[in-house]
Amino acid sequence: MSRRSVALVVPCSLLMALGSCHRAPPPAAIGAGAPTAAPTASAVAVVSGAGRRSAASALAGERIEVPAGRLLAGSMPGDEGRDPSTEPVAASYDVPAFAIDALPYPGRPGEPALTGVSQGEAQRMCAERSGRLCAEVEWERACRGGAGDAFGSGAAWDPTCTQTPEACVSGFGVRAMGAALEEWTASPAEVASAGTKRDRVAVRGATAASPAAAHRCAARKAVEPHAGKGRGIGFRCCYGGAEAPLLGAIDAEPPFRKGTLEGAQLGAVLGLFPELARVRAGARLFQSPEIATVLEKGPPGDGVTVTNDPIAWSPEPGANLIVFAGKSKGGSFIVALHRLPQGKFRLASSLVFANDSVPIVLAYDPSLRREIRWSTSWGTLGEGGAISCRDDHRIVIVQR
């Protein structure tokens, strides 16, 4: 049987700004209030030579005063380079005023940063200077500057900053942030995995050889506090300031659960995204009698759950999506949405069968967390595929 003609739509549409909190709230279920969305996010911009640079030379022991202010910290699901198992969903935090070293320790221009120390050793050396290891929200605020830049030298990543990191400055004048060095922070970074939580600490910044997205101010790694000796992690110190807030914890949801999507909500959700405008009119989920025809050649096998209900899917820790299939006057469709706080959603991926109302089933194997299968005729070549979470954490829907 020949493959059906489909229209593939991939990321994405983004949400409206989130409110202020100290720990991000759990994602809201579909049906809890009016859903909302906002403009599409762009990929990481790379512009060589565009980074903000200081005409003045760095000073030994220089400290930068960072004023109190509100920080939009974290990242959005689907952002290029984002690892949901370590980066919380973006939220606003009130950060008290503080001072921070302009350069990584020891803070002497032209000298390499001290690396190969544990987090505890970094804390001790900051204390010897009457300082402390920076909280990660302080590090991110110093990196983003007052304008909330994506990178430590501006809105776009400037790869030349890896060669001359001391010359690249944030909006507050802090040097070398995220350019060529991973840095310890004082903040915990709880990572949920396989039903357990391991105590780690947040490391910010990136090595010079890292990909562009790793240099984002929001980029975050969770590292064992004694790992510095073998990893080459540096640090810088902060001074003064009240206790800084903690970023939201990373939740570990079961891989597959039954999702809910009220009939009246389906059209509203589809209407959020211009990419899905053609399937909004008359949209509904498939009913059991309709999908029975998909399985006429036989069931999919032991351990595989087949459903016409929406699936609440967590393909990896920190990732929360809802996946559903249905039909409308414009054709059948499969949609994967990132679920976010306060009833907001971001389109992860979608597949539209233009002007074809063929029934579709969804299926999953609990042992294959990162994939949901779909089919219009189970067991027929070319009549199915998968919704997959790739190694780069992006969600794609493919036909096989």
SSE diagram, text form:
Layout: E1 7-9, E2 63-66, E3 69-73, E4 91-95, E5 98-101, H1 119-127, E6 132-133, H2 136-144, E7 182-188, E8 191-193, E9 196-198, E10 201-205, E11 221-223, H3 228-231, E12 237-239, E13 256-258, H4 263-270, E14 284-285, H5 288-292, E15 305-307, E16 311-313, E17 321-328, E18 331-340, E19 344-354, E20 361-364, E21 371-375, E22 384-389, E23 395-399
Antiparallel strand pairs: 1-19, 2-5, 3-4, 5-12, 6-12, 7-10, 8-9, 10-11, 13-16, 14-17, 15-20, 16-17, 17-18, 18-19, 20-21, 21-22, 22-23
What characteristics describe this protein?
single chain, 400 residues, mainly beta, paralog of FGE (formylglycine-generating enzyme), 2 domains, 5-stranded antiparallel beta sheet, 5 helices, 9% helix, elongated, disordered N terminus
**End-to-end span in angstroms?**
12 Å
CA-based gyration radius: 24 Å
User: What is the CATH superfamily of the largest domain?
Assistant: paralog of FGE (formylglycine-generating enzyme)
What series of H and E elements makes up the topology? EEEEEHEHEEEEEHEEHEHEEEEEEEEE
Q: From the 3D coordinates, which CATH architecture of the largest domain would you assign?
A: Alpha-Beta Complex
CATH class category label of the largest domain: Alpha Beta
Written account of the structure:
- This protein has helices spanning 119-127, 136-144, 228-231, 263-270, 288-292, and strands spanning 7-9, 63-66, 69-73, 91-95, 98-101, 132-133, 182-188, 191-193, 196-198, 201-205, 221-223, 237-239, 256-258, 284-285, 305-307, 311-313, 321-328, 331-340, 344-354, 361-364, 371-375, 384-389, 395-399.
- It has two domains: 7-14 and 253-399, no CATH class; 63-239, paralog of FGE (formylglycine-generating enzyme) (Alpha-Beta Complex).
- A hairpin with an 8-residue loop joins strand 21 and strand 22.
- The protein is elongated, with a radius of gyration of 24 Å.
- The strands form six sheets. Strands 1, 13, 14, 16, 17, 18 and 19 form a seven-stranded antiparallel beta sheet that branches. The chain has a five-stranded antiparallel beta sheet with strand order 15-20-21-22-23, with no helix packed on it. Strands 2-5-12-6 form a four-stranded antiparallel beta sheet, sandwiched between helices.
- It starts with 6 loop residues before the first strand and ends with a strand.
- It is mostly beta strands and 400 residues long.
- It has five helices and 23 strands.
- The longest helix has 9 residues, at 119-127.
